[in-house]
Design a protein that fits this description.
heterodimer; A: about 650 residues; mainly alpha; two-stranded antiparallel sheet; 2 strands; B: six-stranded mixed sheet; 6 helices; 11 strands; binds protoporphyrin IX containing FE; binds copper (II) ion
């Protein structure tokens, strides 16, 4: 008996690596600390009522934000581990297996559990306010999306200490990811972590599509909508078309592993190239899913801090929509060298370059928004100005990669790694951070400290170039990606060492940048400049017309919109002495909190965990629980309530009393 | 308005540090940029294309960055700035036409070069000498080379005659990999159950670095191999020598070799007939429509003769 338990534990828990024991201890200690703090301060009910069961988009947004910043930390630590291993040739810091697991979890976490939720955080925090709406179209679903994401992410992260991490790359190409070559449970964690959170992502896409189409304030025609909301629309449409492909692809991979099917093995007529096609039919749109909202953020920021209308609004809208369509026709540029015919390669090369056109147009429109404006370099603007050169270069190297015959030499090399980090960090991360700094006062009621912020920005920005510019050069030196070691240990010394060392220094600079941000946030919580106006930057759109943080119903009275930049217009009218028509408050219809999304997601987690270990006694009850939650929801009728007028009056008086 | 000043200064630093970093990268690596130092016709076409498209891209990128810096400086929000301020100006048909037009033109130019070279490289590099065939198998975690005309085999070392087009046939008896000899030309995937084709040629004698480029599991980092190109006569000598002095590769020997492990260079005076076809077939090649086409061509249109 004891022997059995010991044997089980030694395969169930990851053993043998001091780093992992360290993580075990850290996890246990943190959990104990959290439980202790919550109990000591009697915060359990608060946590349950205010957060776990909430359907308020603003609170859901905050939870997304916290989760994604934690994931940025985990993904960043992974990155630093890798860069440490690569700092010098023949380094003995990480074993091969460990390095392979680390780049796999780094890539997966950064894209799916950092970029996506950070994006959803901004969707949630901003879109309803910008549209003059009281919530998203489906608040209950919204909460479900969040909890599914979190449970998926937790399941994935658990593989670090239980069972073993996936190590077949962030896209897990078969046959490497098949049972034959990855017999452990790591790949199962990968599949189920992504599947569970993927359902949530799809639901979020649908939710925001409907919100944008149906919940705009009266008078806000589509062409009067702020550009960030347009970008969310574009991104949501892509999510709706792309994520089902991912779900199906991973489901088929699971069937291969679980039932011995042969969708992606060459035996019995399957084909791994099918997987490669499918995963990139999701994967390429995915990168545009995450970058387009960043474009939306830059459009808002540039206009606000140039004190000028956005230049070429129509072409901005058109270019985003164009990108969202064309991005579905470029996937094969990820495997020009997989033997497609010359015609196919030419087609995908050109379609890829075509995306460069609308993207280039956007850059010019941002520049000409600043042109003849009055530019203040606040924190959000700083990140925007850091973004433009970075993204322009990243875009240009993207076009270089699209030149199919040349890609035969860049493919799978560090040139590629440098390119995609340049667009993902320079575009997506800088963009979302610009958005975070921009809307932070709206969400939390105070600004983030400027001086610490500048340090963070410069560490990130300079660190970025120091880290990734040398990698373009390493690509030309023949260094391929996913190498855990190089140098005389492998029998070849091609002079990769100095640039790798430089690159590692850059990575640590970015790490320091992140520490500055943590410092900045914790400092500003206590000492940050409070925002009493609700409009700290001189904003142009509706979210700045209400107090910060917004009351739970957002708008006491539905705003009526007549122009674009609706809030700017109101301010202009006020300056001219035009008084807004008096308004009458009415009771506000609100959704009730619900525990079902959380409970259902926990059941998904249980089911997922069961499938990971092939434990049907666990998976089946999990699925039954999911079904039970669905039933419970369809029979619950008491799901909404009204906020009475006098309560609105009291809230507004309290908020406005402070603000005006 | 001190903070605006510093903002501007910092921006200059950004651009400068950018230039410095690129300069340092280039300086540290210049003579080691093997991709830009081609030793055969395929790599040469690719190198020219890389430089050409790189220059075109730079010609766009640099002015845009300069323009940005200029605009940010010129329209900075300081009290004494007397540059024009037009908060409502947000539309200009002429300007928009220009910047839709410029990228379109550039993309057209790039597309033409791309198409030209894609079709060019779909043919074998040189046609006036008889090509030889080398069958390549990626294993966990080593490369096996078979010479069907010479009937010898090698591991992690491949010798080729200089000035002769080589038809590499690629497959895998392990997860997919990608076969890459930067100085001779770009890479191509090697996949189980499939026989891909990659034409390369070395113009002159020399030693070149080759590696697996697509991650294939634990010791992927050790899948590097040596390519040596020799004058035809010396190549023939070498074949004779291998035939005379090396052991045979038997069926069992291959099974051993295919087991997950790393390997040094090895040489075999012979190998089982049909070994390559068997490798392709047992990994599912029998299910491919064209598996009969092993000797006549491949599924790889882009590098097909
Ligand atoms: C904070 C700075 C970052 C550093 C220093 C960094 C570093 C690295 C390194 C060293 C690799 C592995 C290269 C290899 O061995 O092949 C890698 C891969 C990757 N990174 Fe990052 N990274 C950073 C941020 C990001 C971000 C923000 C994203 C996405 C939003 C991202 C996405 C990826 C992906 C998708 C891969 C490929 C993983 C794979 O090969 O399967 N990284 N990164
Ligand atoms: Cu792509
Ligand atoms: Cu194939």
């Amino acid at each position: 008996m004891w022997e059995n338990i010991k044997e089980f534990a030694s395969t169930f828990f990851v053993t043998g690596d001091p780093l992992i024991y360290g993580a075990d201890v850290a996890i246990v200690l943190t959990s104990i600390a959290i439980v202790f703090v919550l109990t000591y301060f009697k915060k359990w009910t608060w946590l349950w009522r205010e957060w776990i069961t909430t359907v308020d988009h603003k609170k859901i947004g905050i939870m997304y934000l916290i989760a994604s910043l934690l994931m940025l930390f985990r993904g960043g630590v992974d990155a630093l581990l890798m860069r440490t291993q690569l700092a010098l040739p023949n380094m003995k810091f990480l074993q091969a297996d460990h390095y392979n697991a680390v780049f796999t979890t780094h890539g997966t976490i950064m894209i799916l559990f950092m970029a996506m939720p950070l994006m959803f955080a901004l969707f949630n925090l901003v879109v309803p306010l910008q549209l003059g709406a009281r919530d998203v179209a489906y608040p209950f679903l919204n909460s479900l999306s969040f909890w599914l994401f979190l449970m998926g992410a937790m399941l994935f992260n658990l593989s670090f200490v239980i069972g073993g991490s996936p190590d077949a790359g962030w896209l897990s190409y078969p046959p490497l990811s098949e049972l034959s070559h990855s017999p452990g449970v790591g790949q199962n964690f990968y599949i189920w972590g992504i599947q569970i959170s993927g359902i949530g992502s799809l639901a979020t896409g649908i939710n925001f599509l409907v919100t944008i189409l149906k919940m705009r304030a009266p008078g806000m025609k589509m062409m009067k909508m702020p550009l960030f909301s347009w970008s969310v629309l574009s991104s949501s449409i892509m999510i709706i078309f792309a994520f089902p492909i991912l779900t199906v692809t991973l489901a088929l991979l699971f069937l291969d592993r679980f039932l011995g099917a042969h969708f992606f093995t060459m035996d019995l007529g399957g084909n791994p190239m099918l997987y490669v096609n499918l995963i990139w039919m999701w994967g390429h749109p995915e990168v545009y899913i995450v970058v387009i909202p960043a474009f939306g953020i830059f459009s808002e920021v540039v206009a606000t801090f140039s004190k000028k209308k956005i230049f070429g609004y129509k072409s901005m809208v058109f270019s985003m929509m164009l990108i969202s369509i064309v991005s579905f026709f470029t996937w094969a540029h990820h495997f020009f060298t997989m033997g497609s015919s010359a015609n196919v390669n030419v087609f995908f090369a050109i379609s890829t370059m075509v995306i460069g056109i609308p993207t280039g147009v956007k850059v010019f429109n941002w520049l000409f928004t600043m042109f003849r404006g009055r530019i203040t370099i606040s924190q959000p603007m700083l990140w925007t100005l850091g973004f433009i050169p970075c993204f322009v270069v990243g875009g240009a190297t993207g076009v270089m990669l699209a030149v199919a015959p040349a890609d035969y030499q860049y493919h799978n090399s560090y040139f590629l790694i440098a390119h995609f980090h340049q667009v993902l960090i320079g575009g997506v991360v800088f963009g979302y951070l610009a958005g975070m700094y921009y809307w932070w006062p709206k969400v939390f009621g105070f600004k983030l400290d400027d001086r610490l912020g500048k340090w963070a920005f410069w560490m990130w920005n300079i660190g970025f170039y120091v880290c990734f510019m040398p990698q373009y050069a390493l690509g030309f030196m023949g260094m391929t990606r996913r190498l855990y070691t190089y140098g005389s240990d492998t029998g070849w010394d091609l002079g990769w060492a100095p640039l790798n060392l430089v690159s590692t220094v850059g990575a640590f600079l970015m790490g320091i940048g992140f520490i500055f941000q943590v410092w900045q946030i914790s400092y500003s919580i206590r000492k940050g400049e409070r925002d009493l106006t609700g409009d700290p930057w001189g904003g142009r759109t509706l979210e700045w017309s209400i107090p910060s943080p917004a009351p739970m119903y957002n708008f006491a009275v539905e705003p009526h919109v007549t122009t674009d930049d609706a809030w700017w217009k109101v301010k202009e009218d006020r300056a001219k002495g035009i008084k807004p028509a008096p308004v009458k408050l009415e009771p506000i219809h609100m959704p009730k909190n619900s525990a079902i999304p959380f409970i259902m997601s926990v059941f998904w987690f249980i089911a997922g965990f069961g499938f990971v270990f092939d434990w049907m006694w666990m998976a089946i009850p999990g699925l039954v629980g999911v079904a039970g939650c669905m039933l419970a929801r369809s029979f619950s009728y008491d799901t909404d309530y009204y906020i009475p007028v006098d309560e609105i009056e009291r809230t507004e008086a309290a908020l406005r009393g402070r603000t005006v | 308005m001190k903070s605006k000043r510093t903002g501007w200064k910092l921006l200059t630093i950004l651009v400068l540090s950018y230039a410095v970093i690129i300069a340092v990268s280039v300086a540290l690596g210049w003579d080691k940029f093997i991709v830009l130092d081609p030793k055969g016709p395929v790599a040469e076409v690719q190198q020219k294309l890389i430089i050409l498209t790189g220059l075109i891209c730079m010609a766009v990128v640099i002015p845009v960055i300069v323009l940005m810096v200029y605009i940010v400086w010129k329209y900075r929000d300081t009290p004494d700035n007397d540059a024009p301020y037009q908060p409502e100006w947000n539309d200009s048909k002429l300007l928009e036409t220009i910047w839709w037009g410029i990228p379109i033109l550039i993309i057209i130019v790039l597309s033409i070069f791309t198409a030209r070279d894609t079709y060019k490289l779909a043919k074998p590099p040189v046609t006036d000498s008889n090509p030889i065939t080398i069958q390549v198998t990626s294993l966990d975690w080593k490369w096996l080379f078979q010479y069907p005309d010479q009937k010898i085999a090698t591991v992690n070392y491949v010798q080729i005659p200089a000035g002769v087009p080589i038809r590499f046939q690629l497959t895998s008896d392990a997860p997919m990999n990608s076969f890459w000899i930067p100085q001779l030309g770009g890479q191509e995937y090697s996949m189980p159950g499939m026989a891909m084709q990659l034409w390369l040629q070395a113009d002159k004698p020399g030693k070149y670095f080759g590696s697996g480029a697509n991650f294939s599991g634990r010791d992927f980092a050790h899948m590097q191999f040596e390519v040596e190109s020799k004058p035809q006569a010396e190549f023939n000598e070498w074949v004779k020598e291998v035939k005379a002095s090396s052991p045979e590769l038997t069926k069992e020997g291959y099974t051993q070799l295919a087991k997950p492990s790393t390997a040094k260079q090895e040489f075999f005076s012979s190998y089982p007939d049909e070994l390559y076809t068997e490798i392709v077939d047992k990994n599912g090649g029998i299910y491919m429509k064209h598996s009969d086409g092993l000797n006549s061509g491949s599924y790889n249109g882009s590098t097909r003769p």
